[in-house]
């Protein structure tokens, strides 16, 4: 166990948006999905970019990340392993909740999974997503996916789906990064010592997915309980708070930065910066000789880790003469899996965990999202309501912005 400081006290805002425990009859593991062969790549990318009018020729140009790995994204296998690990942990605790798995963009799709669940007799499900932070694509969009599926299938009012709180600073998610960051620092320092430069400066880079600036500013926004966030965004503030907590536990004197990756879309649309590769060039000019890359924004080693970090960022480090390593994602780390089951137990009547552990002052996050959080700027869609249980009102339509995620 590390020296990570964890609190279980609830702030007033969290208490206001806390949901009473319920009797659930299944868990839905919801994720992004990914192709599992070369023939899947273009159909998958069509799903991801649906509604943007992007031709197949352009999709083929951006498919090389997947093509380089045989057309296979690691994410589906990661989810199979996570599902099995969750089932094992639930069984070990005597919790009889089946775990179903549904994806946003590839088989098994969320809509048929919900239909199958209903046909099997399930009526109240608790959704656990493979996104830990607060923003449109990692939180509200999942709720929209459920809302659309329930509406189009006629299951609205028949099947209830709630979502666990954003778990960005749950110790189960943070502890594996603490462990990995410590090991990463030791590895890079050993490599520098072998090269005869044991005292060379090392920087820790916490990497996460860049998102459009407008989406970032909408993350955490609340019409009912306005809060001010560092960087004018809950998404940014959550990552900064996590990075501080990890470094306080591992190496308080080592300098670190929050960097972004995987930007896509039109150049004129502002996204969060700095890009990790651009920042590495700046660090090299400053004399930094070692880098520990922490994929803080990611639950598992999917394509944006395997390509953007393991391929591009590490190649940038090599070209710049920077000794570097990439820290593992939580994946199926036992502490992470146990923490996810704890999150389930926070919301269940049986084996209930009433405390809400959190490693930063921002947490614990809300069980029930306040109105206005992570607004959808892309168009009107049904969404599971703010109480997380029924299909809510359709959001006001906004013009679709080219190049947004």
UniProtKB/TrEMBL annotation:
Under the heading InterPro entries, the entry gives: Ferrochelatase (IPR001015), Ferrochelatase_C (IPR033644), Ferrochelatase_N (IPR033659)
Chief subcellular location: cytoplasm
Instruction: Give the domain of life.
Output: Bacteria
Q: Would the keyword Metal-binding be found if you checked this record's keyword annotation?
A: yes
Kindly state which reaction or reactions the protein catalyses.
Answer: Fe-coproporphyrin III + 2 H(+) = coproporphyrin III + Fe(2+)
Q: In which pathway does it act?
A: Porphyrin-containing compound metabolism; protoheme biosynthesis
Q: Which UniProt keywords apply?
A: Cytoplasm, Heme biosynthesis, Iron, Lyase, Metal-binding, Porphyrin biosynthesis
One MF term in the entry's GO annotations: ferrochelatase activity
The positions annotated for binding Fe-coproporphyrin III are 73, 142
Q: Name one GO cellular component term.
A: cytoplasm
Q: Where in the cell is it found?
A: Cytoplasm
Pfam (any one): Ferrochelatase
- Family of the protein in this entry: Belongs to the ferrochelatase family.
Question: What is the annotated role of this protein in its UniProt record?
Answer: Involved in coproporphyrin-dependent heme b biosynthesis. Catalyzes the insertion of ferrous iron into coproporphyrin III to form Fe-coproporphyrin III.
Query: Mind telling me what this protein is named?
Result: Coproporphyrin III ferrochelatase
Q: Organism, per UniProt? A: Arthrobacter cavernae
* Upper classification of the organism: Bacteria, Bacillati, Actinomycetota, Actinomycetes, Micrococcales
């Amino acid at each position: 166990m590390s020296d990570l400081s964890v609190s279980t006290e609830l702030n007033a805002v969290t208490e206001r948006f806390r949901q009473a425990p319920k009797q659930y009859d299944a868990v839905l593991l919801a994720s992004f999905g990914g192709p599992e062969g070369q023939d899947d790549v273009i159909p998958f990318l069509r799903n991801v970019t649906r509604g943007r009018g992007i031709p197949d020729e352009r999709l083929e140009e951006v498919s090389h990340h997947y093509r380089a790995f045989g057309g296979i994204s690691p994410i589906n296998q990661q989810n199979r392993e996570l599902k099995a690990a969750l089932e094992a942990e639930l069984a070990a605790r005597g919790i009889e909740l089946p775990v179903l798995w549904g994806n946003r963009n590839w088989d098994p799709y969320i809509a048929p999974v919900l239909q199958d669940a209903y046909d099997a007799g399930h009526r109240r499900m608790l959704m656990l997503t493979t996104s830990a932070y607060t923003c449109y694509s990692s939180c509200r969009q999942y709720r929209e996916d459920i809302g659309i599926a329930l509406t189009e299938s006629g299951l609205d009012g028949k099947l209830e789906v709630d979502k666990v709180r954003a778990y960005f600073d749950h110790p189960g998610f943070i502890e594996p990064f603490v462990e990995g960051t410590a090991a990463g620092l030791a590895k890079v320092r050993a490599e520098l010592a072998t090269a005869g430069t044991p005292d060379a400066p090392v920087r820790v880079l916490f990497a996460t997915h860049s998102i459009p600036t407008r989406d970032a500013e909408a993350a955490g926004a609340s019409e009912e309980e306005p809060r001010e966030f560092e960087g004018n965004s809950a998404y940014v503030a959550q990552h900064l708070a996590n990075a501080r907590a990890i470094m306080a536990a591992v190496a308080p004197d080592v300098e670190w930065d929050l960097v972004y990756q995987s930007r896509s879309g039109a150049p004129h649309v502002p996204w969060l910066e700095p890009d990790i590769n651009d920042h590495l060039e700046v660090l090299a000019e400053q004399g930094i000789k070692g880098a520990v890359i922490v994929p803080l924004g990611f639950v598992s080693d999917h394509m944006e880790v395997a390509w953007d970090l393991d391929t591009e960022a590490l190649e940038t480090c090599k070209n710049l003469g920077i000794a570097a390593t990439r820290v593992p994602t939580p994946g199926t780390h036992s502490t992470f899996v146990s923490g996810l089951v704890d999150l389930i137990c926070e919301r269940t009547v049986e084996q209930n965990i009433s405390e809400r552990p959190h490693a930063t002052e921002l947490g614990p996050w809300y069980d029930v999202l306040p109105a206005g959080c992570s607004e959808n700027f892309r168009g009107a869609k049904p969404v599971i309501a703010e109480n997380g249980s029924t299909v809510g009102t359709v959001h006001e339509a906004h013009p679709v912005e080219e190049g947004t995620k």
